[in-house]
Amino acid sequence: MSDKDIQPGQSFNKKPIVAVLIIGAFVAILNQTLLATALPHIMNDLDISANTAQWLTTVFMLVNGIMIPITAFLIETFTTRRLFLSAIGLFTIGTIIASVAPDFASLMVGRVIQASGAGIMMPLMQTVFLTIFPVEKRGQVMGLVGLVIAFAPAIGPTLSGWLIGFLPWRSLFFVVLPIAVIDLIIAYFVLKNVTERRYPKLDITSIILSSFGFGGLLYGFSVAGTDGWLSANALISLIVGAITLTIFILRQLKLDQPILEFRVFKYPVFTFTTIVAMVVFISMISAETILPIYLQEMLGYTALESGLVLLPGAIAMGIMSPITGRIFDKVGAKWLALTGMSIITVTTFFFTSLEPNTTLAYVTVVYAIRMFGVSMVMMPVTTAGLNQLNLKLIPHGTAMGNTMRQVAGSIGTAILVTVMTNSATPNTSPTRIEGMIHGVNVAFMVATGLGFIGVILAMFIKNTNPNRKKQNTATEAVEA
Q: Of 11, 40, 142, 412, which is the most buried if we count CB atoms within 10 A?
């Protein structure tokens, strides 16, 4: 037994573990959006087309989405230290390769290796936090997870736009690299083994089905948002993804040791909170996608300026996430979710009347208030759902929740971008710009309706008392 193993009842300093995992997850998620404003520079430097360059962001999302569903298996197979060190190590190696890549193929290899490590970190971090903290303190620490989920992807375009204004695009990787290396070194010394290994049987068929199922859906919805729902790439990917995912789910229900346990949805609170988390994630990601398009392509602002518009909202959510976590520990998730979803719905409605002369101040303030609402919903409902699961099911719950958010983000963005494109009326509006903005307004009308559905769903969340230390609403393991 390793001297890094934590025995039941043994006290240890949790703060270094929390810090190491938070930093690792932050730099991993930051990389999802870090290249957004750098793509034109990469295109010129490597002499590639826009469609080719877009794969640098698409492949990161795909590999990330493929890795997340199998993290429950990895967490139950490897020690906490070995798995995190492997994940941050892969991410660091990928970053090094990308920073010195002489051509597009090498850069793609670096991004794939980065994403393979990044996909492990978020579910692992959540599982560790839920393992080492008692139920009455989980809201506060999961609030830090909300900070990572919101702040990291939002700061990416802003940081990227600022750096690209002064330095070559490779600087984006050189900024991340030392943080990853330092985190890797510190983790080696302070991280302890806290998760329980159960050595589940490796089912290669399930991993292949999971990869094609979730990967196909993520890629299909991503392509549908740009190429159209009837494009060959979108249709083939969605059909293959749907069929293989169905086979994957049916196979998991028959296995004694499934790669991903779908029976977590037998717990009603977990199911409702997961759906609400999906709705709020769609609201967050879709706005982060549509508003930069509106600001840059329709109003003519730079990528840096549009990134700065989103920054106060990210800061607001970053500040509020730990605070709403503490509130959750006192009052539960239901009223936080209802209040937050109401704020999201109202502020989304404010975006349905954008015009060519809408000020940056208006967009910035409304978006910041909107993200304040997101902070009240995202991690409180996630924590409330995971609190219903025992320690055996938590790795599966965290993997399932993160996977569902990834899929929801892809679906929601694809649908709203399609609505925005198809609703644009350049031929009937006084100007082409006004017609394009009309499409943006219609997309936010659809998002408003989605927010209203989220408000209704939040009413069904059971408001369990998080202060009951002996609360154990789901102490019995789900039978395979």
A: 142
